[in-house]
Amino acid sequence: MIRRIKDFMGLVESPSGMWLFIRIGIWIALVSILLRLVSLPGLMRMLSPKKSSGKKWPREKLVNFSSFWLGREAAFFQRSCLKRSLVLYRYLNMQSERAQFLIGVRKEEGELRGHSWIVIEGEPLFKNDDTDYRLIYSYPGNQP
Q1: 31 phi and psi, to 5 degrees?
Q2: How many domains does the chain have?
Q3: What is the mean pLDDT of residues 101-112?
Q4: According to the model, what pLDDT value does residue 80 have?
Q5: Burial class of residue 29 in the structure, from the number of CB atoms within 10 Å of its CB (0-12 exposed, 13-18 middle, 19+ buried)
Q6: For a surface tag, which of 25, 99, 122, 144 has the fewest beta carbons within 10 Å of its beta carbon?
Q7: Shortest CA distance to 53 belongs to which of 28, 18, 20?
Q8: CA–CA separation, 39 and 43 (whole Å)
């Protein structure tokens, strides 16, 4: 138990890190609800910051925090590339990284599968991310 607490404190590092961690968890919960209430284009407009926050967080910290929350077995926090991509889109754009949100589909074993991911300057945020999908949605609109 003490090791877990130390690992967690190493992850958040500071009061501002703790505040970022909490805000990412709140946004994941909000996105989970809003996905059921708002169209995707409407949600994307809501997630797009009007201006830069002026803060710069390491990408790894943003990814780790969202992965932590999405690893929970609670209703709002089940693992989902869609929720992860939406929240990372918001935070990366808040720090002026010009992230692009993409959704693609493909057939696997006769079933239609979907995936969402983030692209920055034409490169997937996760280098090992499988992006071999037929692109069906991109926000902002121009494709990478």
Answers
A1: -60, -40
A2: 1
A3: 94
A4: 85
A5: middle
A6: 122
A7: 20
A8: 6
Residue 17 forms part of a structural domain: yes
Please report which residue ranges of the chain form alpha helices under DSSP H. 2-12, 15-37, 40-47, 59-70, 81-94
Plot region of 142 (φ>0 → left; ψ -120 to 50 → alpha; else → beta): beta
d(CA 101, CA 84): 11
State phi, psi for 136 to the nearest 5 degrees: -120, -15
In a domain, 40, yes or no: yes
Domain interval for residue 67: 2-139
In this structure, is residue 144 part of a structural domain? no
Q: How many CB atoms lie within 10 A of CB 92?
A: 22
- Model pTM greater than 0.70? yes
Mean pLDDT of 122-136: 89
In contact, 114 and 104? CB cutoff 8 Å: yes
Q: Which residue has the tokens 């935070």?
A: 91
Angstrom distance (rounded) from CA 116 to CA 129: 10
CB burial of residue 85 (10 Å; 0-12, 13-18, 19+): buried
For tokens 């409407």, what's the residue?
42
